[in-house]
Design brief:
The chain has 16 helices and 7 strands. With about 500 residues, it is α+β, with helices and mostly antiparallel strands. Helix 6 packs antiparallel against helix 7 and helix 14 packs across helix 15. The structure holds guanosine-5'-triphosphate (GTP). Keywords: Cell membrane, Membrane, Transmembrane, Transmembrane helix.
Length: about 500
């Protein structure tokens, strides 16, 4: 979801905390200080915090950025130029800092508007971030800042090389601040996504390892700093973007403070080269880890999306299978089990009856003169009649009785645990219920139908279902012969009567 338009009122409650954080980050940058003989802090964190403030607060954040810059800048500049000059310079410098943050914020929002998506979620967003958000705003404002400091005699070296040096450092220092601190906004914006459980012990190993390696590299053996890379990598893999941003910010502040105090692997010769080497280390490490963190997020999102797609398709497939199964076992017109399904159920019931030695009967039902219904009122009314009869059968029979459509206007019922005498009663009840069933026609008329039934019981000598069905069919034939609308039991047939299929 694309989410940067939160209401102004709810965003404004962050105004004061952000102002305080910006002032504190300014004092931290001043405190960790500049290299000897230089006036530019190695990392100007307020430049990044300022962008975060504008991203969170929108335009009202400009006032906060300007105020925070004043509160940090005036006391520092006053030590070099005196309070009178510091005021004027501070006001202008604060305006330039606000402009820099605004340019970075605009670049961020332009990307979001163009792509209709939250910025800094995809690894490919990083190119725009490194160039338009980190580099261009620093490059645009640094010449004016340098000019301002030069006119106010606040530069340590006013020669051309001194001014160029100062300009280069200013750009790198501000870029580093934006590069390291601005992703904190992404942690805040996407706070619901990280799902990092706050278990202090789990978070202890990167803190301990980074602390140990930094202490070793800065105080005992500088090349040990190389060990920091795999630990930062592991922290990023394990703790994703939040782990990476926090670890890199802490590492950058500690290393640059140590370098300013002449400690660590970067302290060698020309301060400009020290500065550049330190920045190279911070930039290359941060850029690599940012790419890794966002690539991980992308892979995770794709996996979640893929999993939900697979789940949705599995569900659709299960539904389709269910439907297919239903189509394969159900008669479409009446919703009753079709012949194959009924035969399967009947075979099961026969098996149970044999195993438990209980009686079982079947009932073959045929509607009387159904052709006349079709011929007189049309096929549609015939269909309605078949449906109505099926409903009547369902309502009249027990749930344990299996009812099905044999085909055409013929239905079958298997009655488990039912003797022939009981089956006759069921058949009679059904015959009366069907005779009472009617389908309404236009003009207040309605059509009724009767039914004939043949009933047979399972015998030990029956080889298969067909034997049973043949006797029921034979009884049904006689029901038709005797005048229809009646029930005939297999025991009522003449002894020498051969089974014959009724037409
Ligand atoms: N509307 C409709 N008619 C069907 C369907 N299946 C079969 N029929 C019709 O059912 C009628 C069955 O006719 P016959 O076999 O002569 O049986 P009958 O008219 O009921 O006569 P008796 O069984 O001898 O009482 C035929 O007209 C078939 O076309 C169906 O699904 N819908």
């Amino acid at each position: 979801m694309f989410t940067f338009h939160s209401p102004l009122r709810s965003r404004l409650r962050y105004f004061l905390p952000l102002l305080v954080i910006q002032v504190l980050s300014g004092w931290l940058s001043v405190g960790t200080g500049a290299l000897p003989g230089e006036s530019v802090a190695t990392i100007w964190l307020p430049s990044g915090v300022g962008v975060v403030a504008l991203l969170v607060l929108g335009q009202p954040g400009l006032l906060g950025v300007w105020l925070a810059s004043l509160l940090v800048g005036i006391p520092v500049t006053a030590q070099i130029t005196g309070l009178g000059m510091a005021w004027r310079m501070g006001l202008a410098a604060a305006a330039l800092e606000a402009l820099q943050a605004w340019l970075a914020m605009r670049a961020w929002r332009v990307h979001e508007t163009r792509h209709h998506a939250n910025f800094l979620r995809q690894p490919q967003d990083l190119i725009w971030f490194w160039f338009w958000v980190c580099t261009v705003p620093a490059l645009v404002t640094a010449p004016f800042m340098t000019l301002l400091q030069w006119t106010c005699h606040a530069l340590p070296d006013s020669s051309i090389t001194g001014v160029a040096r100062h300009f280069l450092m200013l750009v790198l220092s501000n870029m580093a601040g934006i590069l390291l601190a601005t992703p904190v906004y992404v942690l805040w914006r996407d706070r619901g996504r990280w799902d990092l459980r706050c278990n202090a012990l789990r978070h202890l190993w990167p803190v301990a390892l980074i602390g140990l390696i930094l202490a070793g590299a800065l105080l005992i053996y500088p090349p040990a700093l190389a060990l920091l890379l795999p630990v930062l990598l592991a922290t990023t893999v394990r703790f994703r973007l939040p782990g990476m941003v926090v670890a890199m910010l802490a590492t950058a502040v500690i290393i640059s403070a140590a370098t300013v105090f002449h400690i660590g692997p970067f302290v060698h010769g020309d301060p400009l080269m020290v500065f550049v080497n330190l920045q190279l280390f911070l930039f290359s490490t941060t850029i690599m880890l940012q790419y890794l963190a966002l690539a991980q997020e992308l892979i995770k999102r794709h996996r979640v999306q893929l999993e939900s797609e697979v789940a949705a398709r599995t569900e659709a497939l299960a539904q389709a299978n269910e439907r297919l199964k239903e189509l394969a076992t159900t008669d479409e017109l009446t919703g009753a089990p079709n012949r194959r399904e009924w035969q399967r159920r009947c075979a099961q019931a026969v098996l149970m009856a044999r195993r438990q030695d209980t009686p079982l009967s079947i009932l073959l039902l045929d509607l009387d003169h159904f052709k006349m219904v079709n011929d007189t009122h049309g096929h549609l009314v015939g269909d309605l009649m078949l449906r109505a009869v099926a409903n009547t059968c369902r309502e009249t029979l027990r749930a344990s009785d299996s009812f099905g459509r044999w085909g055409g206007e013929e239905f079958v019922v298997v009655l488990p645990d039912t003797s022939l005498a009981d089956a006759e009663q069921v058949a009679e009840k059904l015959r009366i219920a069907i005779a009472a069933t009617h389908v309404p026609l236009d003009g207040g008329l309605y059509v009724r139908i009767t039914s004939s039934m043949g009933v047979a019981r399972l015998r030990p000598s029956d080889n298969d279902l067909d034997d049973l069905l043949t006797r029921a069919d034979h009884a049904l034939y006689h029901a038709k012969e005797y005048g229809r609308n009646r029930v005939v039991l297999e025991t009522e047939l003449p002894a020498n009567d051969l089974p014959a299929k009724h037409g």
